[in-house]
Amino acid sequence: MNHSIYSADRTTHLKIVVVAMSVGIAVAGLALSFRDTSGDGSVHAERIIKAGKPVMETNSGGAVVRWRL
């Protein structure tokens, strides 16, 4: 058995291409199965969250740790 791709014969190259194509088709099919098929034409329109006004939050209840060197 030769472990080099350079000296592999034609059937080995064909097997590699067939396996790569089948894995690619499987990944594409899996990605398409997770698509949103709501049917109203909008893609994920109900999941969009728009930013509002900036808000500053403070918390003075925590302990302050100071390092001295």
Which tags fit this structure?
1 helix; mainly alpha; single chain; 69 residues; elongated
Structural overview:
The protein has one helix and no strands. With 69 residues, the chain is an all-alpha fold. The longest helix is centred in the N-terminal third of the chain and has 24 residues, at 10-33. The radius of gyration is 28 Å and the shape is elongated.
Helix content: 25-40%
Helix tally equals 1
User: What sort of overall outline do the alpha carbons produce when their principal axes are compared?
Assistant: elongated
In percent, how much strand structure appears in the residues?
under 5%
Task: Indicate the mean pLDDT.
Answer: 77
How many extended strands?
0
What's the alpha carbon Rg, rounded to whole Å? 28 Å
Instruction: Show unreliable segments.
Output: none
Q: Specify the biggest β-sheet.
A: none
Structural class, please? mainly alpha
Q: N- to C-terminal separation?
A: 64 Å
SSE run: H
Would you summarize the structure shown here?
By secondary structure, the protein is mainly alpha-helical.
Question: Strands, helices and their partners?
Answer:
Layout: H1 10-33
